[in-house]
Amino acid sequence: MVEVIPALDPAGKRGHGILVVRKDGRIAVTADELRRLEPDEPRESASLLYNVELLSERIAEFWSSDTATLRIEAELLQAELATMTGSKSWKLTEPLRRLRGLASRR
Fold it and tell me: pTM score, two decimals?
């Protein structure tokens, strides 16, 4: 790190500053090194537990929204069925459906 430059917005409040850095001769860190857990680092386990908590919340939200969607769809289908079975054409064709049922049993 070479320099830290504090930043002020036009209203004179503190904001994000600027960090001036310079590349040095160290070897670049690999993706595997960044993913590797450090067993003696307490923040690692706290972070993992927090991630599990967040994922559990997201799964619960997913299932509750999915259940709500299915409930609404079931109610719409029940209303459509009630409309169909309450129609005049359904009532007029009831004897034909009974005859078909009797004929299919034989």
Answer: 0.40
Q: Which amino acid is at 69?
A: T
Instruction: Tell me how far apart the alpha carbons of residues 70 and 83 are, in angstroms, rounded to a whole number.
Output: 20
- pLDDT per position as a tens digit, 45-86: 899 999 999 999 999 888 888 888 888 999 999 999 999 999
Contact 4, 19 (CB under 8 A): yes
CA atoms within 13 Å, Cβ hemisphere of 34: 4
Helix or strand or coil: residue 38? coil
Of 22, 20, 25, 23, the closest CA to residue 4 belongs to: 20
How far the first Cα of the chain sits from its last, in Å, is 91
Q: How many residues does the chain have?
A: 106
Helices (H), the chain: 31-35, 42-85, 88-92, 94-105
Domain boundaries, the chain: 41-89
Mean pLDDT over the full length of the chain:
87
